[in-house]
Amino acid sequence: MTNPNIHPTAIIDPSAKIGEGTIVGPFTIIGKDTTIGKNNKIGPSCVIENTDMGDENELIGHCFIGVKPQDLSYKDGFESRVKIGNKNKIRECVTIHRSTKLEQPTVIGDSCLLMANSHVAHDCILGNNIILVNCCGVAGHVRIADHAILSGLTGVHQFVRIGRLAMLSGLSGLMLDLPPFCYATGTRAKLAGINVIGLRRAGFSSETIRAIKHAYMELFLSTRTMKESIELLRSKPQVPEVMEMIEFCETTERGLATPRKKINKTEEDADE
């Protein structure tokens, strides 16, 4: 029996599973071993393969999801995967490549917005409510935490981590880890402060924002070493968000994005 939600020009592999209420547009190809949940809207001329997709996602059109990665070490026929959550909006010409490992798929969480021509490479793990603006390119093995925003025409180096509610300014290239709640900008992106507007929109209190700002100034603008600054911050009671920043800094492997400049700030100055 013909499914009225699937356009007659769409090509669906017999092994693919498509949930109730999902609409598949013209000339879309859904390949083998693909599972698509309920009430998704898949526009025209998409290619989806080796993917597990949740419910209520919208793919506008001409998206390539789960295709083989742009990794010269990848061998054809290696059936790694992409996992996509629920309620994501994936705009025109977005590409999301499958992983290079069987045990860990490329992951997109829930309620993300991937704008036109954005790219998520192999082995990336994106959390929830993330925004990739037009023509944002995320290289392989990148980790992006919830509510981060990557502005238009940005690039992220492989293996970089981006913390929760962090923001990368347009036309920036991020080579090193971007801590949570921070803002970075520049061709070789450097820290430029905290993401105050994002924190306010997320409902953070003025007291918490002040605590984050104080921690930022101590960690990145004081003349103390990172280890000394962390020890100083840990010696006093801190809000959970400051502890999140500290733990992120302690676990970096690539290194942390540096501020535009270091200034000689005393602890009393940082409290202002």
Give the helix level as a range of percent. Answer: 10-25%
Contiguous helical run count: 5
Radius of gyration: 21 Å
Output mean pLDDT.
95
CATH class category label of the largest domain? Mainly Beta
Strand order of the largest sheet: 3-6-9-12-15-18-21-24-26-27
Summarize the structure.
The protein has 272 residues and is an alpha/beta fold. The chain has helices at residues 196-201, 206-221, 226-234, 240-250, 267-270; strands at 11-12, 17-18, 23-24, 29-30, 35-36, 41-42, 47-48, 51-53, 58-59, 64-67, 82-84, 89-90, 95-97, 106-108, 113-114, 119-120, 125-126, 131-132, 137-138, 143-144, 149-150, 155-156, 161-162, 167-168, 173-174, 182-185, 190-194. The chain folds into 2 domains: 11-141, 3 Solenoid (UDP N-Acetylglucosamine Acyltransferase, domain 1); 200-270, Udp N-acetylglucosamine O-acyltransferase, Domain 2 (Up-down Bundle), CATH 1.20.1180.10.
Describe this protein's structure.
By secondary structure, the protein is of the alpha/beta class. It has 2 domains: 11-141, UDP N-Acetylglucosamine Acyltransferase, domain 1, CATH 2.160.10; 200-270, Udp N-acetylglucosamine O-acyltransferase, Domain 2 (Up-down Bundle), CATH 1.20.1180.10. It is 17% helix and 24% strand. It has 5 helices and 27 strands. The strands form 3 sheets. A 10-stranded mixed β-sheet has the order 3-6-9-12-15-18-21-24-26-27. A 9-stranded parallel β-sheet has the order 1-4-7-10-13-16-19-22-25, with no helix packed on it. An 8-stranded parallel β-sheet has the order 2-5-8-11-14-17-20-23, with no helix packed on it. The chain is elongated. The protein starts with 10 loop residues before the first strand and ends with a helix. The model is unreliable at 263-272 (pLDDT under 50).
